[in-house]
Design goal:
about 280 residues; alpha+beta; Thiol Ester Dehydrase, Chain A; ten-stranded antiparallel β-sheet; about 15% helix
């Protein structure tokens, strides 16, 4: 089935999702937090890991892809950007609207779908903007425009900080409880049909590990200082493989980062940007 280019610009949503402190804690556990980060896993003085935002509205991705007639068997998360306008409360209802902004043709390699959303809390506060880039391996060759080059390289010198972590071999089973139920991360037969040895890590789960590492290095104890995070997902990561988040502090309030698979030496997330500070514009 050909991609539906008429879906570009059409309003998606509003999509609502209510949550309590328990969903906040389940997310934190799903991205590797534990007793060492009690503020994110214990309801007393609870704080929200900022990337909870994207897990809480993951339904938007599939709502965006459905009218575009994307072949879901071939989708991979290509890139993600999050811009924070305010701190995320520990409970409430999120209201999200958005649209597909671009569909690019990578010819025999597939297609790229870009969608953008804005999420408000039920208290009326504008919380975050999300820009999703989805790579669809089976939908290219429709004669559309080519995607612009967006490659961002990290510095050649050694990073200022390396944060090590080892997701559990069962990590996707816990992370999916936050809402991303895509079969690629749980069903061995589906994963093999998609070309993988076994279910792979959610890219957004690995992004959650990165967010924790970046906060450790740049905003310890202050998730409200996180202003923007962006990255490209470059290679799949199998559950249980150890990872390293490499962080370069480039200037005040800004850092570049990537995630490396410690077992294979491959970079699994690249082009990472992180912005942080005490204040932000609404």
């Amino acid at each position: 089935m050909a991609l539906n280019l008429k879906s570009i610009g059409e309003t998606i949503g509003p999509i609502q999702r209510s949550y309590t402190w328990k969903e906040v804690v389940v997310y934190a556990l799903g991205v590797g937090a534990g007793f060492g980060e009690l503020d994110y896993v214990y309801e007393k003085n609870l704080k929200v890991i900022p990337t909870f935002s994207i897990a809480s509205i993951v339904e938007f991705i599939f709502e965006a892809l459905r009218p575009a007639d994307v072949n879901l068997a071939g989708i991979l998360h290509g890139a993600q950007e999050l811009i924070f306008h305010g701190s995320i409360p520990i409970s409430g209802t999120l209201n999200t609207t958005g649209r597909i902004t671009h569909i690019y043709d990578k010819k025999e390699k597939g297609a790229v779908i870009v969608a953008e959303s804005i999420t408000y809390h039920s208290n009326g506060e504008k919380l975050f903007t999300a820009v999703f880039t989805i790579f669809s391996r089976f939908d290219g060759g429709f004669g559309g425009e080519s995607a612009p080059s967006t490659k961002l390289s990290v510095p050649d010198e050694n990073p200022d900080l390396i944060v090590h972590a080892r997701p559990s071999p069962d990590q996707p089973l816990l992370y999916r409880l936050s809402g991303d139920l895509f079969e690629l991360h749980v069903d061995p037969a589906f994963a093999k049909r998609a070309g993988f040895e076994k279910p792979i890590m959610h890219g957004l789960c690995t992004l959650g590990y990165a967010c924790r590492a970046l906060m450790e290095g740049c905003t310890p104890g202050r998730p409200e200082w996180v202003r923007r995070i962006h990255c490209r997902f470059t290679r799949p990561l199998y559950p249980g493989d150890p990872i390293e988040t490499h962080i370069w502090k480039t200037e005040s309030g800004k850092a570049l980062w990537k995630i490396r698979n410690s077992k294979t030496g491959e970079t699994v997330i690249d082009g990472g940007e992180f912005e942080y500070g005490e204040s932000s514009s609404k």
